[in-house]
Design a protein that fits this description.
The protein is about 70% helix and about 5% strand. The protein has helices at about 1-15, 20-30, 35-75, 80-120, 135-145, 145-175, 175-180, 185-225, 230-240, 245-265, 300-315, 325-330, 345-360, and strands spanning about 270-275, 280-285, 295-300, 320. It has a 4-stranded mixed β-sheet with strand order 3-2-1-4, with helices on both faces.
């Protein structure tokens, strides 16, 4: 028997269930999202090299203009002063910014877009918190020799092999241009090298993007695996989010007790209590100046009915036995509601009897 209980506990603690929406939301708040770094890297590289292919000519002209202006303007200066050095520094910085900033802007936009496409907009300071467990050398060694580290190593080897093969193939295809570089002018050499660099960069980016797609599905598998929950985890989450069933039952019991006390407080103000006589009791109140129809202020069966009758007797509330009326009103009229039209005649007769009794008293 104990062995069976241990087996049940083991299977209850085994993480075999898919993550609940709450678990996913909590993980997202902690910054734990489905993300492949290779997707972002591939998009950044591809965007930068495509931009270089489109805007390469204007950038080349800008660089040449920068060098021409620098050598023609600043090489003729005989004496340097601090003010002149600062001016030269600002001029050089502004000229280089015009050339470099567009590339940096494209890379930044591509990086943001790569992350946004994977997990949307998210800002979380949780990963930035200092955690001493991350400095644990034992856990660090385990991470180094884990299956995940092995897969990352194989992935890196695959990237190096494929990217190296593609770039080598491009160089081999253009081997004649590469070998003739020593016979070309500096301008022609720069053009040839730039074209080859851009072509190799785009090809490498495309290869990296293909690898990134495969890595994305692997990261998705790992992400879902890490988020998996055990049956006990789901039960605990339900208790935490919906409340412990025991506590909820106690709250409901307390609410019923409070409602019962409020109902019993209304019995002394009732005009009549219609009984079964033993199983049902319905307390009615009617004020012709403020009410269109009599209202049920209390009702109950068995023990509650006996308590209603006891309070009514103590407060000299008239009780009338009418079995079918008591049963029908108990089933169809809730506490605080006015009686429906179908009961008007029967209740009117009861109230008329009550008023006659009270006048005799």
């Amino acid at each position: 028997m104990q062995l069976l209980e241990l087996d049940l506990q083991f299977f209850a603690g085994e993480k075999t269930e898919k993550a609940t929406p709450k678990k996913r939301q909590d993980a997202r708040k902690k910054g734990q999202v489905l993300k492949s770094q290779d997707v972002t890297s591939a998009l950044v590289l591809l965007s930068v090299f495509l931009f270089l292919m489109i805007a390469g000519t204007s950038m080349r002209d800008g660089i040449m203009s920068f060098f021409n202006e620098t050598f023609s303007k600043y090489m003729l200066i005989d004496t340097l002063s601090i003010k002149l050095v600062v001016k030269i520094y600002k001029d050089v910085l502004s000229e280089m910014a015009v050339i470099i900033l567009p590339i940096m802007a494209i890379a930044m936009i591509a990086g943001i877009a790569g992350n946004f496409l994977q997990f949307g907009f998210l800002f979380s300071a949780e990963p930035l918190k200092f955690d001493l467990t991350k400095l644990d050398p034992v856990k660090g060694i385990k991470r180094m020799f884990s299956v995940k580290s092995l897969i990352e190593l194989l992935k890196s080897i695959l990237k190096i092999t494929l990217i190296g093969s593609v770039t080598t193939a491009i160089l081999w295809k253009n081997i004649d241009d590469v070998l003739s570089l020593s016979f070309k002018t500096p301008g022609a050499t720069l053009i040839t090298v730039s074209k080859l660099t851009v072509f190799m960069g785009i090809a490498a980016s495309v290869v990296l993007l293909i690898i990134a797609v495969l890595d994305y599905f692997y990261q998705k598998f790992e992400y879902e695996k890490n988020l998996k929950m055990s049956k006990q985890d789901i039960k605990d989450e339900y208790k935490n989010s919906e409340g412990d069933p025991l506590i909820k039952s106690k709250i409901k019991q307390r609410q019923r007790e409070m409602a019962m006390r409020r109902m019993m407080q209304e019995v002394p103000q009732a005009d009549v209590v219609i009984t079964n006589p033993t199983h049902y009791a319905i307390a009615l109140k009617y004020d012709e100046e403020t009410m269109d129809a009599p209202k049920v202020v209390a009702k109950g069966t068995d023990f509650v009915a006996q308590k209603i009758k006891f309070i009514a007797k103590e407060n000299e509330v008239v009780m009338v036995e009418n079995r079918p009326l008591a049963r029908a009103m108990y089933d169809q009229v809730e506490i605080g509601q006015h009686i429906p039209d179908e009961f008007f005649k029967a209740v009117a007769e009861v109230l008329a009897y009550v008023y006659r009794v009270k006048r005799k008293i």
